[in-house]
Design brief:
Length: 341
C-alpha cells in the first residue's frame, strides 16, 4: 500500500500547488515578471511546467494504481500465510493492465518498486507465520515435523509468487510487445531470494536436529558396543552444546536484517562437520565389529537417518561396496549348496 499512498499524497500536494498557480494573485505576479523582463521569469515558467507534468503523472498513477488497493488490503489483513497465495494472480494481472494502460506507470523503475514492496509484505507475513522464537518453541516441544512443514509452506508461498510473476512477464511479451517487462530478476527479488535462502538454512538446521536427536537413545551391540555407544552419546552431547549456541542468539533467525546469522550458522555448520567425521569413524568401527551380514545391515539401520549426510555418506561408500560383495558371495555359496543338493 505504500506505493498507492505515495502517489495519492503526491497527487494531492501537486493539485494544491496547481490550484495556487492558477490563482489571480500568482497570475498577476507572472504578468509583472513578464512585463519587467525579470530574470526570474524563465526559471519560474520552467518550474510551473515541471509542476504541471508532475501533477499529470501523479494523478494518472493514482488513478491506475487505486484498483490494486483492495488486493493489497487483503494481503495486509490476511491471518495466515497460505491464504495469500490466491492473491498473487489477480495482483499481477492488475499490474499488467496498469502497465498496458497507464501513460506513466510503465517503466522498469516503477515496476521494481511495486514488486519489491509486495515481496516485503510476503516476507512480513512469512515471519508472522514462523519466526525464530516460534521455531525454537516447536523444537523444544519435539515438534520438528511441524517446524519443517511450516518452513516448507514459507518456501512454497514465496516460490509461488515468483512463478506467478514469471507467468505474467511472459504474457507481457505478447500483450505489450513494444514494452515488455524487461527487468533483471535480481533487481526485483533480491530480498525475497535472501529470505528463501534463509528458510533453506533454517530448514537445514531443523533437519540436522532431527537426524542427530536419534543418537540420544542409541545403543550399539558387538564386542566394542559399550565403547562405541559412549562415543555416540558424547557426540550427541557435543551437538546439543552447538545447538544451544544457535538457540541463545539475540536475534530472530528469520530476520534478514540480523546479519550475524551468517557467521553463527557458518560456525554451526563447521562444528557439525567435525561431529559428522567423528560419527563416521564410529559407524566404520561398528560396521567392522559386526561379523555377519545381518549384523552389518542392522548397524547401518541404526544410523539410517544420518547416512544421507555428505561426510558420513562419503566415508561409508566403500563399506557399502564391501557389504554388497559379501552379500553376493553368500548368495553364491547358497546357490552352490542348492545345486549340489
Amino acid at each position: 500500500m505504500e506505493e498507492l499512498h505515495f502517489w495519492a499524497a503526491k497527487a494531492k500536494n501537486l493539485n494544491s500547488i496547481f490550484a495556487q498557480l492558477q490563482s489571480d494573485s500568482i497570475r498577476k505576479v507572472l504578468q509583472y515578471l513578464d512585463a519587467s523582463k525579470s530574470t526570474y521569469n524563465v526559471p519560474f515558467a520552467k518550474l510551473c511546467k515541471e509542476v504541471f507534468l508532475a501533477r499529470a503523472e501523479a494523478n494518472d498513477n493514482k488513478h491506475y494504481l487505486w484498483p490494486l488497493a483492495k488486493w493489497f488490503e487483503q494481503l495486509a489483513s490476511a491471518q495466515t500465510l497460505p491464504e495469500i497465495r490466491d492473491l498473487f494472480r489477480p495482483i499481477c494481472h492488475s499490474i499488467l493492465l496498469i502497465w498496458k494502460s497507464s501513460r506513466f506507470y510503465n517503466i522498469p523503475a516503477r515496476l521494481v518498486v511495486l514488486i519489491r514492496q509486495i515481496c516485503n509484505e510476503i516476507i512480513k507475513k512469512a515471519m508472522m507465520h514462523l519466526n525464530g522464537e516460534k521455531l525454537f518453541e516447536l523444537i523444544d516441544q519435539s515438534e520438528l515435523e511441524q517446524a519443517n512443514s511450516m518452513l516448507q509452506v514459507s518456501l512454497q508461498v514465496c516460490a509461488h509468487f515468483k512463478s506467478v510473476y514469471f507467468d505474467y512477464k511472459a504474457k507481457s511479451v505478447t500483450e505489450v510487445p513494444g514494452n515488455p517487462w524487461r527487468i533483471q530478476n535480481n533487481a526485483l527479488f533480491i530480498r525475497l531470494d535472501e529470505f528463501l535462502e534463509r528458510c533453506h538454512d533454517v530448514l537445514e538446521l531443523t533437519q540436522t536436529i532431527y537426524q542427530f536427536q536419534k543418537l540420544a537413545q542409541m545403543e550399539i551391540g558387538g564386542t566394542k558396543g559399550k565403547t562405541l555407544t559412549t562415543s555416540v552419546h558424547q557426540i550427541y552431547a557435543d551437538f546439543q552444546e552447538t545447538l544451544a549456541q544457535m538457540k541463545n542468539v539475540q536475534y530472530d533467525l528469520m530476520d534478514l536484517d540480523a546479519k550475524h546469522f551468517e557467521d553463527d550458522f557458518y560456525a554451526f555448520r563447521s562444528k557439525n562437520k567435525e561431529l559428522e567425521r567423528r560419527l563416521a569413524s564410529v559407524i566404520n568401527q561398528a560396521f567392522d565389529d559386526a561379523k555377519t551380514i545381518v549384523g552389518r545391515f542392522k548397524c547401518l539401520d541404526c544410523f539410517e537417518d544420518l547416512l544421507d549426510r555428505q561426510i558420513i555418506k562419503n566415508e561409508l561408500e566403500r563399506k557399502h561396496t564391501s557389504l554388497i560383495a559379501s552379500y553376493a558371495s553368500d548368495l553364491h555359496v547358497v546357490q552352490q549348496i542348492f545345486i549340489e543338493n
